[in-house]
Every structure is written in C-alpha cells, then in structure tokens.
Amino acid sequence: MAATVTFEHVTKRYPGSAASRPGAVEDLSIEVPAGKVCVLVGPSGCGKTTSLKMVNRLIEPTSGRILIGGEDIASREVTDLRRSIGYVIQQVGLFPHQTIGENIATVPRLLGWDADRRRERVDALITLVGLDPAVHGDRFPAQLSGGERQRVGVARALAADPPVMLMDEPFGAVDPIVRERLQNEFLRLQADLAKTILFVTHDIDEAIKMGDLVAVMEVGGKLAQFGTPDEILANPASDFVARFVGADRGLKRLALTRVESLDLRPAVTARVGDDSGEARRRIVADPFEFLLLVDAANRPIGWIGQRQVPASGALTESMASAMSPLLDGKTTLKDALAMLIDAEVQVGIVVDGKGAVQGLVTADEITAYGRRDASASGAPGGAMASLR
Asked: Is pLDDT above 90 for 4?
C-alpha cells in the first residue's frame, strides 16, 4: 500500500519574518508518485526537514496544501494522521525502557491490535530487517549496536503498514561502513515494499543512491531543481545545483547505471585441453590480443596472451598468467571502474549467477558512458590492446 504525496505551493514562515523575505520553505510544489522514494537534499537552512515535518504536521504550513492520496492532510485529525505515517529519525528515538518487540509494537498497540496480531507483526518485521526475533525481540535498545537500533527504527516505522514513510537523515549517526550496509538493506526492502518515502539528507551521494526523485533545495527554502538523479546530474538547472552536485557528476552518474545496461564485448574463450593452434587463430582475428581460458562450466580461469599460446598442442591451465575482476550484471559502473582501477587492468569479466562468462567490459566503455557517449561503437581503442 502506498499513496501519492503532493505539495501545492507550500510556504512556511515563522512569526517575526517579513513577508518580503524568504521563509523556512517558499512556495514548494512537488508531487511524489505512490511507491517512489523522493530525497530532499540541500545545505543547512534550506528547509528540507521543515518540509518533511509538515507532512505529519509536526510543523504546520503557513500557506498551501499537502495532500496524501489526494486528501488534504489539514482535514485529518492530527493523532490519526501521525499514526498512519511511518517516521524514522537520525537518533532512532527508541524507548529505552521497552524491549525491541515492545518498541516495534507501539503504533499497533495504540491502534488497538490484539496481542497475537501484534506479536506476529513484530516477529515478521524483525525478520524483515535482517534480525532474529528469538535473539533480538526481548532485548533493550542499549543492548544493540547503532546499526541494529537503526534497523529497529525502520521496523517500528513499518509496523502499521503505513502508506507513507518520512525518514530524516536516518543513517547519519552510524559509521560509513554500517551506513552503506543500511542503505543497501533499505533499498532491498523498498524493492519489495514499494512505500512512498520522503527522505532527508545533506549528502548528495546518498540522495543519488537512494532516490527515485531528488528535490535539491537552497537556502531560503526554495526548490532549485526536482527530477530523477540522472536528470539532475546530466543537466543541472543552475550554477547552485551544479556546484552542489559537484564537479564529479559524470562519475556520480556511473553509480546510477549497472553493467547489464552496457553492450558487452564477446570474449575469445577456450577450455583446458582445446587445440592451441585453433585458439591462436581466433585470437589473431580478434582486436583483443588475449585468450580467456575457462573451465568445463565456462567459468574463467585466467588470461593467456597471444604470444603465450603455442602454435600446436593442447591448452593447459598453467598457461594462464593473469586475471581480471569478475563483475555481475548488477554491479554499478562506478564500482566496476573502481575495481578495474584497483586491479590496474583495463578489462573486467562479466559473469552470471553461476560464474559463467557473459562478456567483457572495458574502462574506456565505462568512462565513455559517464560522458554520455555509452552508445558509441567505433573501433576498439587502447583498452582492447592490452589488459593493462
């Protein structure tokens, strides 16, 4: 279950601010389709958290309307509205005197769910966020790590199956390694749950990774640009947006695209025991001067340079002297490029779920995509002349 969230000319000014001056939020109009993640991003003082809190009426707008599923939230009773919206904050906000199970059951209990239904929902949600109900359900927040507490915060927000979730810098209080793991876990959950989510962050990299849509806001509460991450990176609407997303926006675009989006180059492969003379003839006819030795299941063993392939005899595993990083179709182009750079090679091997070779991807092709030239198909360049 999800619902569209619409801001119609929403403004928030605090007492004492002149009408001629910018408020905390100025004339914000955006629509977030049901089941999508919209990230509000911008510097401190740009009104992103204020915008979020107006959705559950922790802050009341000065003018304009906010609609959830086409219904004006001003017409809703406040307590009922808040119980129908999931809310996750940076500090998690778990009740320290309650167990994890009791924390997650907070809203269902307020809604009058019976004990069996609450217990079933709690166990399901603890499992959903990657924890064990038998291990974690009766523990207290102080007995959990920061990352575990944040997972419980997400579970609590999901408890009553809300159509909308608000997330205010939910992963900002954990270390970078845990943060990345939580981000990935959340994206996995969202792929299954398809909630409508408004997500606040000050980190443009997190916004690009997490958002189906991104609202870039500037100081004074003004919307600078609203669109998909790719649209914002490819065509910043102003100098402010261009500066905010950074000079490396071409690299950031690579994080939005996966290896499966590229046209893979075929690899010249041969198996252990194959005739080396025939394999050598195939290498000579290919721009890439290396043979990929594979096993009986077409899984890569290593590369053999053209000059190392004998004119006759059989291929042996000992002939393979180099290897490339193994990539799968879901690897982002940014990660793929990083792996190639780290391995100091120009070519990666794309494999399927069973490890069988699907094709090759080169550093040149990845960087060309970052320059919006991924469809160019000219003659092979330097990357195809050598592994390094």
From this structure: yes
- CA atoms of 80 and 216, how far apart (whole Å): 30
The reported pLDDT for the residue numbered 22 is 61
- Read off the pLDDT band of 375 (50, 70, 90): very low
Q: What is d(CA 54, CA 78) in angstroms, rounded to the nearest whole number? A: 11
Q: Containing domain of residue 317, as a range? A: 259-384
327, β-bridge pairs: 350
122: left (phi over 0), alpha (psi -120 to 50) or beta: alpha
Q: Are 309 and 357 found together in one domain?
A: yes
pLDDT given at position 384: 43
Is-contact 143 98, C-beta < 8 A? no
Do 114 and 195 have their domain in common?
A: yes
Reported as a single tens digit per residue, the pLDDT across 236-292 is: 999 999 999 988 887 788 888 889 888 899 999 999 999 999 998 898 888 888 999
Confidence of residue 372 (pLDDT cuts 50, 70, 90): low
Q: How far, in Å, are 30, 36, 260, 266, 386 from residue 363 at the CA level?
A: 38, 32, 15, 15, 12
Residues 299, 217 within the same domain: no
Nearest to 24 by CA among 3, 45, 52: 45
263 in the same domain as 211: no
- Specify the DSSP element, H or E, that contains 71: strand 71-72
Are 237 and 343 contained in the same domain?
Answer: no
Q: How many helices (H) and strands (E) does the chain have?
A: 15, 16
209: closest CA among 239, 245, 165, 259?
A: 245
For 184-227, give the DSSP string: HHHHHHHHHH--EEEEEES-HHHHHHH-SEEEEEETTTEEEEEE
* pTM (predicted TM-score): 0.72
Q: Do residues 238 and 365 share a domain?
A: no
Q: Which CATH number is 193's domain given?
A: 3.40.50.300
Who wins on pLDDT, 7 or 159?
7
Domain tally for the chain?
Answer: 2
Q: Which of 224, 253, 282 is the last residue of a domain?
A: 253
CA distance 265 to 363: 12
pLDDT tens figures, 200-245: 999 998 999 899 999 999 998 999 999 999 899 989 999 999 999 9
